[in-house]
Amino acid sequence: MAEKLLFVTGKLAEKSLNKVLQEVQANPKTPKFKYRVEQIGISVAALMTPDLIARRLKNSGNANKMILPGLCQGDLSALHRQYGIPVERGPKDLKDLPQYFGQQGIAPDLSQYSVQIFAEIVDAPDLTVDEIVAKANQFKAQGANVIDLGCLPNKPFKHLADAIKALKSAGLSVSVDSMNSDELLLAGKSGADYLLSLTEKTLWIADTVQATPILIPSLPGNMTSLYRAIELCLKKGKPFIADAILDPIHFGLTDSIVRYHKLRKKYPHISIMMGIGNVTELTDADTAGINTILFGLISELNINAVLATSVSPHAVNAIAEADIARRVMHAAKRDDRLPRGYSNGLLGLHDRKPFSYNATEIAEFAAQIKDPSFRIMVSEAGVHVYNRDSLLQDVDPFAFYPNLGVENDASHAFYLGVELARAQIAYQLKKRYVQDEELNWGINTDAQKTDGRESHRQASLKEKKSKK
What is the reported pLDDT for 1? Predict the structure, then answer.
């Protein structure tokens, strides 16, 4: 049976909402539904609260679900009890309703992945055991499956065994990365799950401990030596992971990718690791895009694990980005689709659909405004600021100030300054802007809970009404 939906909205959005719903309903790919739009007498839909809706909406008619504006704040459970039907928030922007309906019943499943993330603590010998555990838990929260303890050349790691035991006690899988045979032996005997990195010359270490070896060439680029080490492990029936070593840009990146391709072609069924830090850390570019491309290659090559780092300030979220990238690529490969429409987590600087409304539509909104509060919107034409008295358009926030009349209202001036700065950034970068909302920077967004908080605009409207 077709769903019967009740959309609750405000005066300004009513016309646009009906128009979008008609377009959505006309799309043959959209699940069938019937709908009714209830305009409850408030101008701005985002200013609705559950209490206000409960007072103004007499009944839900024959609807079996109520959909509120996405920016409606507060606990919706009371509405569910009052009207006896599910109540949920729609998208924050009504222009996103097509995507909202298109995802019903077929929401992208990003719960699965096929790549294990080894997150390296590169300076482990310089940290205390407690500091190592704290950083490990941070990496685990970002998506790491294995915590890698990076040893330092010519520097003793006196608390290596204690660090491994502490991490294991915390329920974490551990790998140890060292070129020192004694450290690798100690790591294996102390309970490490993996040892990085063994060559055909040090493969004997794997015979004395239970840890899984990660194999690398004896010399950079010497794949023949890696093949020999692989064959030894296959002959012994010893589990292993092979790593052809990814080199930095202009120091062999392309050749190293070719090595991975040859390795996978020669051994279709072995486990392979790629260390991605040589590219994410050693390139002055946003790591979200780098991780996306690398994980696309990783997906095509059926690579099973990555060694990721988060050392440079610009790579602060590289582990979390790797987690999203592996899930998106896994889902896209599973669905035999391009990696689009699965997540916005890797879209940091730009948005696919930055401008919801054009200048003409914004002018129509402005014509309906009856109060002095300023609204701010962004279109391809620039930043728009409007209230009942004026409609202004520009890009530079300073150009608006002389016409806003807030010279003697410091609080309002500050608020408008903040919002106009956000709007300017959104216009320049082609990002989505929603008044009173933080800009979305993908995984790099510093999420802040706003439920229960009144925006300046809400408080301002209430103050003006109380003075009338």
Answer: 67
